[in-house]
Write a structure and sequence with these properties.
Layout (H helix, E strand, L loop, with lengths): L12 E3 L2 E4 L4 E4 L6 H4 L8 H16 L3 E4 L14 H14 L3 E4 L15 E2 L10 E3 L12 E4 L4 E5 L2 E4 L1 E8 L2 E5 L10 E2 L20 E6 L4 E4 L3 H7 L1
Parallel strand pairs: 3-4, 4-5, 5-6, 7-8, 8-12, 9-13
Antiparallel strand pairs: 1-2, 2-3, 9-10, 11-12, 11-14, 14-15
Helix pairs in contact: 2-3
Length: 239
Amino acid sequence: MTAPDVEIDVPVAVHDRAIFLPATATLVLADVHLGKAAASSVDAPIDDGADVRDRLATALEATDPETVVVAGDLLHSFSRLPRGLERDLEAVVATVADAGAELVVTPGNHDTMLGEVFSGRTVPEYRPDGGETVICHGHEPPATTAERYVIGHDHPALSVEGRKLPCLLYGPDCYEGADVIVLPAFTRLAAGATVNGMRGRDFQSPLVRDPDAFYPAVRDAATDEVLWFPPLGRCRRLL
């Protein structure tokens, strides 16, 4: 897989469907959707609970964070707790604790039943160490002013050479003068929204107003290299 020669200067390290903020030792992921497999009407291709736990453990080992923030939609179901959900959630909580990190959740629109199964720390928006970054799910306009927002919610993916790949989106100065980083869904059961053909009205987050100005980034699993592409306004003509 190749990408145009695009250099982007962002103060984050891109990992497998997650990012690490070195300045505050914070690992951020979004849209875990635990229980999605059990809630599905068809057989899921993977055990989503075990897959999330294992990939989270890999990210923890690679980054050694002090804090792990789930930027919304830790759970999948709105109205019931699928069988095995509590077991999978306990495994995620234990994985973070075993790494010596604190787990923080900024609830998303799917997390209506989170309080019934999660007793850890939840906040609508999280600002690591009182810094310039605010983390939230992104389904509502943020209440806190920041220089940078990290969100999930839209599950972005990029179609590259006939393959649909989860991608990060970076929009400099794209929301009231602040930068916006949109994370891909951490669960591999989410198909993702192909952003190549999406316009502003197609995005669900109010923080994405002009998607043409957002730069996609794809992590090449074969080389562990992060490939940055031109902004979506140009990508549509290149891909």
